Automatic annotation (TrEMBL), chain A:
InterPro entries: Trp_synth_b_CS, Trp_synth_beta, Trp_synth_beta/beta-like, TrpB-like_PALP, TrpB-like_PALP_sf. Residues 67-390 form the Tryptophan synthase beta chain-like PALP domain. Tetramer of two alpha and two beta chains. The keyword Kinase does not apply. This is Tryptophan synthase beta chain. It comes from Nannocystis bainbridge.
Automatic annotation (TrEMBL), chain B:
It is an enzyme of class 4 (lyase). It comes from Nannocystis bainbridge. Its EC number is 4.2.1.20. The active site is at 53 (proton acceptor), 64 (proton acceptor). This is Tryptophan synthase alpha chain. One of its GO terms (molecular function) is tryptophan synthase activity. The gene is trpA.
Amino acid sequence: MTAVHPEDDNLLRGPPELLGEFGEFGGRYVAETLMPAVEELARAWPQAWTDPAFVDEYRAILRDYVGRPTPLTEARRLPAAVGGGRIFLKREDLNHTGAHKINNCIGQVLLARRLGKTRIIAETGAGQHGVATATACAYFGMPCTVYMGAEDVSRQALNVVRMRLLGAEVRPVTSGSATLKDAINAALRDWVASVADTHYVIGSVMGPDPYPLMVRELQRVIGDEARAQILDRIGRLPDAAVACVGGGSNAMGLFAAFVPDKAVQLFGVEATGEGLQGRHAATMAKGRIGVFHGMRSLVLQTDDGQLLEAHSISAGLDYPGIGPEHAHLHATGRARYLGISDREALAATELLARTEGIIPALETAHAIAALPAVIRELGPEAVVLVNVSGRGDKDMHTVMTHLDPATLSLIEEAEQGRKAARAAHQAAAASGERKEGT
Amino acid sequence: MSAGVDRVTAAFARARAEDRAALVGYLTGFDPDRAGSRERIFAACEAGLDVLELGVPFSDPAADGPTIQAAMTRALASGASMAGSLALAAEIRQRFELPIVLFSYANPLVSFGPERLARETAEAGVDALLVVDMPPEHAEVLRGPASARGLGWIGLVAPTTTPARRARVLAASSGFVYAVSLTGVTGAPLDASDAGLHAGLATLRGASSLPIVVGFGVRKAEDVRALARHADGVVVGSALVEAGQRGPAALGELVAALRGGTRRV
Ligand SMILES: Cc1ncc(COP(=O)(O)O)c(C=O)c1O
């Protein structure tokens, strides 16, 4: 794994006056109160990332605690179902906490310690980034506050329990649409007031510079490992790399290693939800350039510049913006972005489970669902690398209600059986009492 | 009568001549609805505002506290738009001579188009722009066309701002410079007699010849009184929005009381 790429001028871009922009995207659109902190981060990040002691500590934790390197699994039975190809699955689902998010959290909490910060805040949508941040904070013994939209608190109750178990404080956010974007607003408001001692761990390649760059670098371990693994396995690079895109961190982590390899096609997969005419999270297809959450990027918004609420069945893709580097890769044509609906993602969840014995996160299922289109285009001989960004345990409730009426009816039957048994038990007890009474 | 940045400058000169700080009042357009906000803004102007900060609502006001967030949510729910906000500004301008500063976030303004924004705000009688999430590094896209039409650009200096950044903010500012009183969002609690705050204002005064206007957390006449000697103007936002929820009369009373606190005696 090569963590540091000095040839990458975006990484070592010098003084903070030079704003981290990817083409016409990126920047630091934050309140003046936060600008000095953002500048401090922009200075500290390249120093840390070129400091062998920092990088060694980060790598050692990824190895000994997170469980890296994650395997590269060649799919055995999936190709027959998606039109062919050789398909390699990068197994980020096997990371500690079950998704790629932890790669970023470990790095940022390490950086926060280096900066002398004593408190961590984060936002979370599905709860995966919140759980990963809470985990990193438990590991380092740092207090942690996670902002989560009130809607998501009820949709993702299990992850709320996980965060609390890990010692984090979860603050439900009721303002705005009470979802991920509002959780980010709330975290920014906390940070404006607490910036002296607090580091904000943003969970994707978004927000003001240097976050998009820093989070990409902390996630590029995905692509660096996968690149070496596939070269080792088949002696050549893949024809395509595919990943789902919410804010875009698992995709950027994968893509980062392949951007210079022009022969490798890059496909990001965004959520078209109920369809582009209905509620969706298709920022590439339907977004317009805007300024949101500290960055200039593509944004789902009204003609009047107000944010639209995004929708996806996967809470992790349910975001009306996208990281600026993706907007840049899109604008330059280096990466292409496909859309997958809620229904297609659900079907792909089942497909991967049954063909490979891997239950993916609903976010990841979007990438799986895009494979037929990718292989149709590249041909049945194509070698395709897919990032399995996370495992599906967190989504079982959603999957159960949407996908599998049979499971539901099994549970209902069991529930009725339990009620009947309890009623019988109570009736027996009551008649026992009556007997005692007489 | 002057317009644009000159009108802003004149308002501070007038207040200074009267040996008082200028009272700058923030209200969100279309809160609670169009007619209701016009009535409230008129009442506040009549009761003695020196400068009006007119908020154009944004769906995601990440630098604002709960009071102004809620005001923006109400405004959007009652149909606020960029064009509607400018029409409202034009109505205020027909009735009042005070400078109008248009306050918003980058996205609605950028989305409207920088040239169009500069032209239509100037035509509506707006005198300056204040965009909280547009630091000087990014400001030129809106500031350039606005300056070309004589509009002011209100930069912000926060307690966290370094001397190097302060110079950058000041170089981009015209009309006045906004001194954020506290490290936090609008509406947070403020100790207006804090010596550190006063010292910060003195430092800023030493670094700029622009009027210095202090805001965030100012609620009462006694807060205004405590700050009047240390700044050229004092901004009251969340407290006005809250008073406005009790109606135009309550808002007018608060403005009159605050105005009483501006005298430097
Ligand atoms: C498993 C998984 N994949 C993907 C995402 C989307 O985030 P990103 O686009 O930053 O990778 C999430 C976010 O919660 C996630 O949990």
